């Protein structure tokens, strides 16, 4: 069961990837879906046993590296944290596999797509069940690879290739810090095995490296690594571009699972992070800033998938600052609920795009709600959950995050709370902007497109409906376990709150207006959106014209790409040009060219000795022998 | 005194003839000098008290190997002058290298030392008690050294296989004696009483039935069938 | 005297006799069944080797330890795989005579005797038992002038090498009064000044063994013999004899002569560096792929000998890992080369591979894997082989050696990758014949090993570590 949950997707990927051509496209698709279903069943059973019955387990698979004093094993570490992720990943992934069967039906090479998708799932599961940092890094890079492959799935589009490379390169920056962090962990603890690290943390709190506290430094480095994968402020630029991939990919990788790996990492390292208060402050600050920053951009974007992408970015910010104030459980809870409603929103968007003949610009949609009622309904549910309207999933988790931020009673906690409230307002606003522009008003698409609008097939709708159920109920059902009264028993030590950290208790004792605030601002946001886009549809354009600078600033995503272009890419290119023209062409190429001609000469010389005459060969042997004997004789003196 | 004199005499001849093996222009002379060298080496063994080895050397090397060499050299028409073409060109370099090696080895021998316990370690000294040379070797060859003995046997086996594999050719056209078939054939020899005075002209030539014919149900005696087998 | 310790060798020798007898009797062509029987005998021997106890036998002439077991298994693997490569080729070339398989069996046995040798006399006999069949199989295609020439050249030079070995052994015996390795070790560890005669003797022995592993400057025969010999024989040349001779070299130098390491280390350093440099540079100009593989094998021997030259625990372990990986990438490469046929005729130019990427993507893919592995590109197995010997060299402080190793592996990457380029980017003259199933299986098996070694290196590393510890204990 434990092994099956992880390895069934690999089996599916193998079947679909290597044998897809032989067994045919349909068989490949359904076999990978079948493998995913099996994995999901295993995942659910594992969740029931590990998380609900509190019976964590570690399954050894064998030795990986055994060099000198350094030992690494392949092992699946199933504690509650891992079990939650495994259950969530396998379930969402299964639904998305199923959805893809419909969505990719017009594609040329579905087996390749399903192989990548299953491979991604396997890598993600390796990541979350890792027993040591190296295995986690294996999964970490594996999902990066799968993400690259999937973003660039339509490799004949230049934009897709560029986006894939951007995602990979930006992630590399984060990975660099991650690797530094792992190296420092090994330097400090002499091991990268989780249980050994966590056990040893208290003894190493005083260690320093280059004059800095080692634990703090590890925390910061690992967080920077997490930033890359989870698209936090500074390293977020790849995520919107990643929407070039097929929509199921956006739903699975860039909303529900892979991007949450960073949050997972911070929670996984909670026993260590607890001893790094400054690192946690940084986490809170960056998370809160991202939450607000991404929400502002989301308000003016016009591509339906990009809006949801920025929303993802923003929600990840929430998770980070929740973890930053020490409420890892809350972060995981939001991660869990978010997976449902964000996957739902993406798949809903995919359904819209499918219906609109691959149109993604919401300015060219509108008035289609009656033609695709199911999609419309699930988009509503997803948006309600995202905005944190009471009794939908997002309400429980987002409220808990804001309560935790408030309860932190620190400067940065207050900052996070304010950012969070503002972001909640903006979230509601852009969600309804999207809903209204997409489904209501006058149809703005051409007639040909309007004529073709159709509801998606059952194979796509079924996952949507299931996810909708999750988006409604996940918060209510699991609140008690994740953050409520059973919290301690549920997590069973897989997340550690240090003795000085009472946040999980304090967050339930905040003033009464705090839990109400997000709901109120969300309703206000909805009202504003309704006013601007339903009641007075001309107003937004006038507003944009009134403050053009602000509008362009937001539309161009705070000019982050341009900034990077100026600061990093441009100078890097100029430097590269210098290196290329002088360093490469003259020196580096010069050396190998010279060396190559030298080598060719040496080669000819060596070959010329080879005369083919036995006597010469024997003579060469004797000369060699005499040479060695002489060498020894000379050395003797 | 006599022993020492004999040793130096044989050793000198041995070295001289060895040098001649390498340098003489006529290959037949080379082989003859080789035989001389073997004899001298055998004599040295005799002086050292190893009669068995001396006899083996004479019997195997002189009696078999060297004679075989001689046959081969005399039967094959090898143009040795052409083979020596490169010799002149490389001679100076070869001489230098050889001289260096010689000097080095001379130095090595000059500075020779023994390990402390080399004397005790010497392999299997002659057993006391009037045991003959051959017997002494036999005692250890099949006991202490059986592993090496068998390995040497395998080396010879492989050499034999190799020689056969590389030289034996089965020509498709050749016929071989198949003794079993010969004996198994019926009707090859028939005794008949012939009337006196009758010649071949009247009796006809009697031939043995061909193998093909035998395989068929044997026909009744082919008595006067002048054509016999073979025509089909 | 516990002769049962040598059971693997005895069983193999008797099996060889039985197969020989069984092959002579029937009139029909017995190459295939004889080969299968030989492979079976080798497998049985391998099982016996795994179960072999440790100790010495025959008055100290024979030794069995984990080092010998490791190397014997590699030797057997080399022999069995070499024979598998020959199955199809020999039939097609009209060389399907059962003696071939028997000779391979005895060559493998010779290798095993060498690996287990604990006495200079055993060493010599093992070497001869290994060499004689090699001379014969090199000339096995006796109607082909190149093959006969290869056999003859190898024979003449091999005889010279044997002479050197015997001369060296006699010098050593003269000094120590014994040929047994244990006694030699005792004599040398007495702490006295080693006689020059002894060291010169060691130099002679090194020269003879270096000849067998084709290390510079005793490599001259290699390209000619590799090119002339039938291709599966070339593959065999590159495996079993090398493993056995390197094992013997390691055992002789690190065992009895370990205490005088300072005396021979310099020589081994030069041999190793010379081999790496020559293997890298001389192969660049080669057009014939068998000749190219000859230089490649010289280079690989250079890397492996690095492990001997540093004379340390890590070095020896690196050597063992290197040999194991070397065997498995080499056999795969030769499987591809043996499969190179066009219109029923064997071809052996590098250019004959042109266009293989399109005409036979499977074979081309495996070949690419082997080439990348040979070039030492991570994450393939070849990278790890090099990694461990380089690590040992660096740890031992042999910076020059490690630098030369890295530089030459860069140079050698050129000609390995050129083959990949030829396969995928050059215009072909026509498709090669389909590879027979036996070769495809060998390719796939060794190719997977090269690809997946990174996931499960532990068993080989552990075995090599234990073997190295056994020898240096």
Q: Could you explain the architecture of this structure?
A:
The complex is a heterotrimer of chains A (637), B (232) and C (473). Chain A has 637 residues and is mainly alpha-helical. Chain A is built from 28 helices and 4 strands. In chain A, strands 1-2 form a two-stranded antiparallel ribbon. Chain A has a two-stranded antiparallel ribbon with strand order 3-4. In chain A, β3 and β4 (212-213) form a beta hairpin. In chain A, α1 runs antiparallel to α4, α17 packs across α23 (513-535) and α18 (411-439) runs parallel beside α23 (513-535). The mean pLDDT of chain A is 83. In chain B, 64% of the residues lie in helices and 0% in strands. Among the domains of chain B are: 1-117, Four Helix Bundle (Hemerythrin (Met), subunit A), CATH 1.20.120; 131-167. By secondary structure, chain B is mainly α. Chain B is built from 11 helices and no strands. Chain B has helices spanning 2-23, 27-47, 51-75, 80-83, 85-110, 118-121, 133-141, 146-167, 179-184, 200-203, 211-215. Chain C has 473 residues and is mainly alpha-helical. Chain C is built from 20 helices and 4 strands. Chain C has helices at 7-24, 31-50, 66-93, 98-115, 120-138, 145-176, 181-189, 196-212, 221-228, 231-237, 240-254, 261-282, 289-309, 313-338, 356-359, 361-375, 381-395, 399-425, 437-452, 458-472, and strands at 55-57, 62-64, 341-342, 345-346. In chain C, the strands form 2 sheets. In chain C, strands 1-2 form a two-stranded antiparallel sheet. In chain C, strands 3-4 form a two-stranded antiparallel ribbon. The mean pLDDT of chain C is 90. The chains are: A mainly alpha (637), B mainly alpha (232), C mainly alpha (473). Chains B and C meet through α5, α6 and α8 of B and α4, α5, α6, α7 and α8 of C.
Q: Topology, please?
A:
The complex is a heterotrimer of chains A (637), B (232) and C (473).
Chain A: H1 2-23, H2 25-52, E1 57-67, E2 70-78, H3 80-103, H4 110-128, H5 133-151, H6 158-189, H7 194-200, E3 208-209, E4 212-213, H8 214-230, H9 238-241, H10 247-256, H11 261-268, H12 270-273, H13 277-298, H14 304-324, H15 328-355, H16 373-387, H17 393-407, H18 411-439, H19 447-452, H20 458-482, H21 487-491, H22 503-506, H23 513-535, H24 539-546, H25 548-555, H26 560-588, H27 590-609, H28 614-636
Antiparallel strand pairs in A: 1-2, 3-4
Helix pairs in contact in A: 1-2, 1-4, 2-3, 2-4, 3-4, 3-10, 3-15, 3-20, 4-5, 5-6, 6-8, 8-11, 8-13, 10-15, 11-15, 13-14, 13-18, 14-15, 14-17, 14-18, 15-16, 15-17, 15-20, 16-18, 16-20, 17-18, 17-20, 17-23, 18-23, 24-25, 26-27
Chain B: H1 2-23, H2 27-47, H3 51-75, H4 80-83, H5 85-110, H6 118-121, H7 133-141, H8 146-167, H9 179-184, H10 200-203, H11 211-215
Chain C: H1 7-24, H2 31-50, E1 55-57, E2 62-64, H3 66-93, H4 98-115, H5 120-138, H6 145-176, H7 181-189, H8 196-212, H9 221-228, H10 231-237, H11 240-254, H12 261-282, H13 289-309, H14 313-338, E3 341-342, E4 345-346, H15 356-359, H16 361-375, H17 381-395, H18 399-425, H19 437-452, H20 458-472
Antiparallel strand pairs in C: 1-2, 3-4
Helix pairs in contact in C: 1-2, 1-4, 2-3, 2-4, 3-4, 3-10, 3-11, 3-14, 3-20, 4-5, 4-11, 5-6, 6-8, 6-9, 8-11, 8-12, 9-10, 9-13, 10-14, 11-13, 12-13, 12-18, 13-14, 13-17, 13-18, 14-16, 14-17, 14-19, 14-20, 16-18, 16-19, 17-18
């Amino acid at each position: 069961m434990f092994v099956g949950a992880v390895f069934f997707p690999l089996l599916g990927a193998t079947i679909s990837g290597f044998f897809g051509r032989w067994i045919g496209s349909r068989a490949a698709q359904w076999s990978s879906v079948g493998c995913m279903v099996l994995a999901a069943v295993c995942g659910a059973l594992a969740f029931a046993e590990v998380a609900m019955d509190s019976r964590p387990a570690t399954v050894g698979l064998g030795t990986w590296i055994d060099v000198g004093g350094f030992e690494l094993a392949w092992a699946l570490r199933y504690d509650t944290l891992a079990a939650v992720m495994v259950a969530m990943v396998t379930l969402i992934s299964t639904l998305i596999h199923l959805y893809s069967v419909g969505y990719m039906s017009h594609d040329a090479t579905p087996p390749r797509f399903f192989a990548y998708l299953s491979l991604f799932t396997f890598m993600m599961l390796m990541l979350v069940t890792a027993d040591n940092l190296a295995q986690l890094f294996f999964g970490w890079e594996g999902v990066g690879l799968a993400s690259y492959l999937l973003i660039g799935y339509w490799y004949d589009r230049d934009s897709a290739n560029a986006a894939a490379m951007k995602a990979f390169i930006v992630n590399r920056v984060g990975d660099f810090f991650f690797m530094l962090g792992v190296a420092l962990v090994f330097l400090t603890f002499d091991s990268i095995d989780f249980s050994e690290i966590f056990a040893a943390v208290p003894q190493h709190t005083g260690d320093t490296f280059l004059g800095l506290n080692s634990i703090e430094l590890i925390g910061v480095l690992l967080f920077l690594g997490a930033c890359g994968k989870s698209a936090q402020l500074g390293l977020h630029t790849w995520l919107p571009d990643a929407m070039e991939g097929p929509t199921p990919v956006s739903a699975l990788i860039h909303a529900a699972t892979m991007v949450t790996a960073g949050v997972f990492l911070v929670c996984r390292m909670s026993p260590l992070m607890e001893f790094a208060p400054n690192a946690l402050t940084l986490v809170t600050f960056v998370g809160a800033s991202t939450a607000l920053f991404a929400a502002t951009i989301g308000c003016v974007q016009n591509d339906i998938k990009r809006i949801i992408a920025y929303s993802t970015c923003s929600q990840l910010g929430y998770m980070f600052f929740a973890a930053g104030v020490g409420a890892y459980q809350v972060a995981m809870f939001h991660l869990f609920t978010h997976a449902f409603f964000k996957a739902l929103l993406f798949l809903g968007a995919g359904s819209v795009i499918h219906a609109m003949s691959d149109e993604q610009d919401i300015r060219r949609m509108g008035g289609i709600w009656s033609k695709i009622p199911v999609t419309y309904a699930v988009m509503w549910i997803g948006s309600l959950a995202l905005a944190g309207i009471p009794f939908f999933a997002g309400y429980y988790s987002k409220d808990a995050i804001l309560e935790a931020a408030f309860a932190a009673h620190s400067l940065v906690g207050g900052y996070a709370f304010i950012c969070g409230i503002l972001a909640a307002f903006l979230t509601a606003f852009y969600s309804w902007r999207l809903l209204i522009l997409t489904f209501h008003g006058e149809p703005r698409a051409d007639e040909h497109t309007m004529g073709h609008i159709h509801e998606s097939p059952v194979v796509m709708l079924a996952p949507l409906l299931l996810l909708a159920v999750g988006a409604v109920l996940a918060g209510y059902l699991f609140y008690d376990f994740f953050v409520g009264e059973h919290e301690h028993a549920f997590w069973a030590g897989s997340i550690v709150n240090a003795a000085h950290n009472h946040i999980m208790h304090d967050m339930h004792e905040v003033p009464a207006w705090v839990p109400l605030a997000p709901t109120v601002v969300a309703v206000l946001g909805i009202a504003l959106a309704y006013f601007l886009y339903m009641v007075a549809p001309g107003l937004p354009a006038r507003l944009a014209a009134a403050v053009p600078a602000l509008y362009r600033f937001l539309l161009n995503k705070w000019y982050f790409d341009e900034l990077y272009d100026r600061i990093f890419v441009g100078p890097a290119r100029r430097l590269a040009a210098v290196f290329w023209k002088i360093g490469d062409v003259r020196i580096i190429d010069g050396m190998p060219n010279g060396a190559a001609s030298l080598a060719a000469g040496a080669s000819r010389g060596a070959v010329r000795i080879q005369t083919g005459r036995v006597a010469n060969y024997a003579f060469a042997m004797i000369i060699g022998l005499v040479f060695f004997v002489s060498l020894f004789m000379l050395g003797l003196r | 005194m006599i022993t020492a004199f004999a040793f130096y005499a044989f050793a000198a001849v041995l070295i001289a003839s060895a040098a001649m093996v390498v340098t003489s222009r006529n290959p037949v002379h080379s082989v003859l000098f080789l035989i001389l060298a073997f004899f001298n080496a055998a004599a040295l063994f005799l002086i050292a008290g190893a009669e068995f080895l001396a006899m083996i050397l004479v019997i195997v090397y002189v009696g078999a190997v060297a004679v075989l060499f001689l046959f081969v050299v005399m039967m094959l028409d090898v143009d040795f002058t052409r083979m020596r073409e490169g010799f002149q060109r490389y001679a100076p370099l070869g001489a230098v290298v050889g001289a260096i090696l010689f000097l080095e080895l001379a130095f090595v021998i000059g500075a020779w030392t023994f390990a402390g316990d080399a004397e005790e370690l010497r392999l299997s000294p002659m057993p006391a008690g009037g045991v003959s040379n051959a017997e002494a070797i036999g005692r250890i060859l099949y006991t202490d050294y059986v592993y090496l003995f068998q390995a040497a046997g395998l080396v010879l086996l492989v050499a034999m296989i190799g020689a056969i594999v590389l030289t034996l050719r089965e020509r498709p056209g050749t016929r071989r004696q198949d003794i079993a078939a010969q004996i198994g054939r019926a009707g090859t020899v028939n005794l008949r009483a012939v009337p006196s005075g009758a010649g071949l002209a009247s009796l006809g030539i009697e031939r043995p039935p061909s193998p093909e014919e035998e395989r068929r149900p044997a026909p009744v005696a082919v008595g006067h069938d002048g054509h016999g087998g073979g025509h089909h | 005297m516990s002769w049962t310790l040598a059971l693997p060798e005895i069983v193999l020798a008797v099996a060889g006799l039985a197969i020989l007898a069984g092959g002579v009797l029937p009139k029909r062509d017995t190459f295939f069944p004889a080969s299968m029987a030989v492979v079976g005998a080798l497998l049985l021997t391998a099982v016996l080797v795994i179960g072999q106890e440790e100790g010495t036998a025959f008055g100290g002439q024979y030794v069995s330890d984990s080092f010998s077991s490791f190397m014997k298994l590699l030797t057997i693997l080399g022999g069995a795989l070499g024979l598998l490569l020959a199955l199809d080729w020999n039939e097609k070339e009209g060389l399907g005579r059962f003696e071939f398989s028997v000779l391979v069996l005895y060559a493998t046995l010779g290798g095993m005797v060498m690996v287990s040798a604990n006495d200079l006399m055993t060493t010599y006999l093992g070497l001869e038992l290994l060499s004689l069949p090699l001379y014969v199989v090199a000339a096995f295609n006796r109607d082909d002038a190149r093959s006969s020439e290869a056999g003859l050249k190898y024979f003449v030079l091999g005889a010279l090498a044997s002479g050197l070995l015997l001369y060296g052994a006699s010098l050593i015996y003269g000094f120590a009064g014994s040929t047994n390795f244990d006694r030699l070790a005792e004599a040398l560890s007495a702490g006295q000044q080693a006689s020059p005669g002894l060291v010169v003797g060691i130099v002679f022995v090194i020269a003879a063994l270096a000849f067998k592993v084709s290390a510079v400057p005793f490599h001259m025969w290699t390209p000619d013999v590799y090119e002339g010999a039938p291709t599966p024989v070339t593959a065999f040349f590159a495996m079993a004899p090398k493993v056995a001779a390197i094992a013997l070299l390691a055992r002789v130098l690190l065992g009895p002569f370990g205490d005088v390491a300072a005396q021979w280390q310099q020589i081994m350093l030069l041999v190793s560096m010379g081999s790496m440099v020559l293997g890298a540079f001389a192969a660049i100009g080669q057009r014939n792929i068998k000749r190219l593989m000859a230089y490649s094998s010289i280079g690989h021997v250079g890397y492996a000998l690095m492990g001997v030259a540093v004379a340390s625990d890590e070095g020896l372990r690196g050597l063992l890992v290197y040999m194991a990986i070397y065997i498995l990438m080499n056999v795969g490469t030769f499987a591809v080369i043996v499969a190179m046929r066009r219109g029923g005729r064997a071809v052996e130019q590098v250019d004959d591979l042109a266009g293989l990427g399109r005409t036979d993507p499977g074979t081309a893919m495996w070949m690419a894997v082997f080439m990348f592995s040979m070039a030492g590109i991570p994450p393939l197995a070849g990278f790890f082989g090099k990694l461990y010997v380089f690590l040992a060299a660096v740890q031992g402080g042999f910076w020059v050696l490690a630098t030369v190793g890295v530089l030459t592996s860069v140079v050698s990457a050129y000609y390995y990758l050129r083959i990949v380029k030829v396969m995928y980017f050059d215009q072909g003259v026509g498709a090669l014949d389909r590879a027979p199933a036996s070769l495809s299986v060998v390719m796939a098996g060794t190719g997977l090993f090269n690809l997946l070694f990174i996931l499960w290196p532990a068993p080989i590393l552990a075995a090599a570590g234990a073997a190295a510890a056994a020898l240096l204990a």
